[in-house]
Amino acid sequence: MKGQEFYQADAVAEAYEDKRFSRGGRLIDRREKEAVLEALSPLQDRRILEIACGTGRFTVMLAERDADIVGLDISQAMLSQGREKAKRAGVTDRLDFMRGDAARLPFPDNHFDAVFAMRFFHLADTPQAFLTEMARVSKDLVFFDTFNARSARSVYNWALPMGSRLYEDSEVTELIAGADLELEAVTDDFVLPYGLYRKIPDWMADGLRDLDTAATDGSVGESLATVSYWTARHS
């Protein structure tokens, strides 16, 4: 798994959200949370597992909306940040954080109503193994995102600290079928690269987002989208 050692560092975990979700990056945070809520709702009393939960950005949000949620991550440093966030939000009674390997999930079959992963599959060295494990422990829904091979990200991917695994749509649909899931929906988003949003102030990001959304609504924009959100279910 790419980044396994990188994300273990306390300094990386402490700076993670400020680095990615400050300035115009707040818009990306809002959009990703919106995508998760759209896919997983209704949430009340549903048992949910988040793979690679990191600092608890989604885990805490879902617990605040009355989901019973487990957040799993390989990095103890990231989990520590998540636990602190949960305490501040007052939702420690609705969630558990666990350190574990996403390729060997410590749960029985069909244990959760839904399993999801965000910002995970671009680091996956064996994506089929990970998705198959997610499907195994979910009785119904599996939701995840991917960075796309034909996007602007492919231009500068080599310059990123760990790079990213970039996916063609056909590859992801094969992964879904290989996990004995059926694709329910896919949404393409963000023609412009994430890094651009993070470098500009909020007010400028909102205007840029309007242009970005208009571009994504067209067939050409969809084919060049940076990210895709995939919703799959057991048949």
TrEMBL record:
Domain Methyltransferase: 48-139
An MF annotation (GO) of this entry: methyltransferase activity
Keyword Methyltransferase part of the UniProt annotation: yes
UniProt entry tagged with the keyword Transferase: yes
CDD domains recorded: AdoMet_MTases
Stored SUPFAM superfamilies: S-adenosyl-L-methionine-dependent methyltransferases
Gene Ontology annotations of biological process type: methylation
Superkingdom of the source species: Archaea
Keywords carried by this UniProt record: Methyltransferase, Transferase
Protein name: S-adenosylmethionine-dependent methyltransferase
Taxonomic lineage of the native organism: Archaea, Methanobacteriati, Methanobacteriota, Stenosarchaea group, Halobacteria
